[in-house]
Amino acid sequence: MDDAAAIQACLAGDTDAFRHIVGRYQSRALAHATVLTRNDADAADATQDAFVDAYRNLRSVDSTRPFYAWFYVLLRNRCFKQKARRGTRAESGELPDSAVSPDVSETRLDLWRAIRSAVG
């Protein structure tokens, strides 16, 4: 099944036809997302979100153009959003304290001491 046929099948109600598209492009999308986010966990999240976006917006696909070119725009936008949220999860690659300059690290320790004394 080619991409155009899979998209038409999805639009006609055959949601399983989208598996063809995911199967065809998932590894390529993950590779691109990893380059853009520089983090495996963020790349996986961005890729999954981009496929959800693609499924929801299949009606806007131009069947005269390659699917992946359209999808890549969604993927790229999801990667940029994921990078902007970086640090909200441990897997997102927050810099270790040793990579932070000593002045910033000392300021962070002072902040935590102040918070602990206010709470406790």
Number of strands: 0
CATH class equals Mainly Alpha
**CATH-wise, what's the superfamily?**
RNA polymerase sigma factor, region 2, helix turn helix motif
**Percentage of residues assigned to helices:** 55-70%
The overall number of domains is 1
Based on CA atoms alone, the radius of gyration comes out at 20 Å
The shape, in one word, is elongated
User: Biggest sheet, in brief?
Assistant: none
Order of helices and strands: HHHHH
CATH architecture: Orthogonal Bundle
What number is the mean pLDDT?
79
Provide a count of the helices.
5
Hey, roughly how much beta strand do the residues contain? Answer: under 5%
Straight-line N-to-C gap = 64 Å
Classification by helices and strands: mainly alpha
CATH topology: Rna Polymerase Sigma Factor, Chain: A
Poorly predicted regions are 94-105
Outline the structure in words.
The protein is built from five helices and no strands. It is mostly helical and 120 residues long. The protein has a single domain, classed as Rna Polymerase Sigma Factor, Chain: A (Orthogonal Bundle). Helix 3 crosses helix 4.
List the helices and strands and how they pair.
Elements (H helix, E strand, L loop, with lengths): L2 H9 L6 H20 L2 H17 L10 H18 L17 H18 L1
Helix pairs in contact: 2-3, 2-4, 3-4
Write out key terms for the chains shown.
about 70% helix; about 120 residues; elongated; mainly alpha; single chain
Short synopsis of the structure:
The protein is mainly α and 120 residues long. It has helices at residues 3-11, 18-37, 40-56, 67-84, 102-119.
